[in-house]
Amino acid sequence: MKTATHRITSRGTRRGAMASAIVAVTFALVTAPRAQNSLDGDSVTEVVDAYHSPQHFAVEFKIGPYTPSLDAEFGGSASPYADLFGDSSGLIYEGEFDWQIWRGFGSIGLGISLAYFGQSAAPFGDDSVGGKPASGETRVAGETSITLLPIALLAVYRFDVLANRWHIPLVPYVKVGLTYTFWWIRKGSGDVASADGSDAAGGNFGWQVNLGLALRLDILEPNAAKSLDVNAGVNHSYIFFEMKHLAADDFGSAKALDVGATTWLAGLAFEF
Questions:
Q1: Is 74 helix (H, G, I), strand (E, B) or coil?
Q2: How far is residue 149 from each of residues 93, 207, 210, 218, 260, measured CA to CA in Å?
Q3: 85, containing H or E segment
Q4: Are residues 150 and 210 in contact, defined by beta-carbon separation less than 8 angstroms?
Q5: Do 71 and 193 reside in the same domain of the chain?
Q6: Residues 18, 19, 24, 29, CA torsion sign
Q7: Cβ atoms within 10 A of the Cβ of 7, count?
Q8: Are residues 93 and 10 in the same domain?
Q9: Is the full-model pTM beyond 0.90?
Q10: Are residues 115 and 225 in the same domain?
Q11: Which long-range contacts (CB under 8 A, 24 or more apart) does 173-176 make?
């Protein structure tokens, strides 16, 4: 009798548990669409607006006028660069990659940059390095060219507090670093030119400093900027203008060919 009663009680308990489970599942199915509808509305918008992908790096692409300081070492007594290539500036193209190692009151980063500058002109007849001969100004067929490849290791500080805290889209910044500039001059034949038995090619150590101001473009299209952050991990985009001084003369060595300059650059930058 006790066994039968126990079986009946166990069955009742199992049926009660099953009924409770069915009620719980039914309730969940009925209320789930309402919860989903609520999540798809204001809650989702708030979550997306508050989301910011991790930020660790920055990349820049820039361009500006450039005239190497080759003539400065003659103190006005001669101007071989201007005589050959003219008074107008060429263009320098530069790319930069920064690793933002600290973020707090602004950001501090380590960067590396690589630039390219090239200028060419028809040479004068009787000068192997393309300079202007004393006998006249007659140019001959062919092309003399100068090429510079400055490489820099940089320390970078960006004051983005105004943009991050108060939505003022201006980011001042400063960069300082050590540089090495490869350079060479080629004759019309394509060979490296020579002077006094030495090839017109080499490399100079030096330093540089950049002072700039960037305009954060997020303010122009906030929704597009947020979508770019959520979908591609691009935190911010900028246009910028900077002044640059490159001292590429082996730290003032009298034997070095001074290929540095003071100039300005403008470009586009992304943080991600």
A1: helix
A2: 10, 14, 17, 33, 11
A3: helix 80-85
A4: no
A5: yes
A6: positive
A7: 10
A8: no
A9: no
A10: yes
A11: 173/210, 173/211, 173/212, 173/213, 173/214, 173/242, 174/209, 174/210, 174/211, 174/212, 175/111, 175/208, 175/209, 175/210, 175/212, 176/207, 176/208, 176/209, 176/210
Residue 23, SS3 per DSSP: helix
Q: Quick one: how many helices (H) and strands (E) in the chain?
A: 5, 10
- Claim to verify: residue 6 and residue 81 sit in the same structural domain: no
For residue 21, what are its two tokens? 């489970």
Last residue of a domain, one of 16, 33, 50: 50
pLDDT of residue 3: 40
Contact 242, 262 (CB under 8 A): no
3-state SS assignment for residue 236:
strand
Chain segment 201-252, per-residue pLDDT in tens: 899 999 999 999 999 999 999 988 888 888 888 999 999 999 999 999 999 9
The candidate with the shortest Cα–Cα distance to 238, out of 248, 249, 228, 251, is 228
Instruction: List residues bridging with 144 in a β-sheet.
Output: 121
pLDDT digits (tens, 9 = 90+) for 56-112: 999 999 999 999 998 887 777 778 888 888 888 999 999 999 999 999 999 999 999
Q: Any idea what the Cα angle at residue 261 is, between residues 108 and 203, rounded to 5°?
A: 85
Do 176 and 189 lie in one domain? The reply is yes
Containing domain of residue 184, as a range?
A: 53-271
pLDDT value of residue 23: 43
Question: Is the domain of 192 the same as that of 230?
Answer: yes
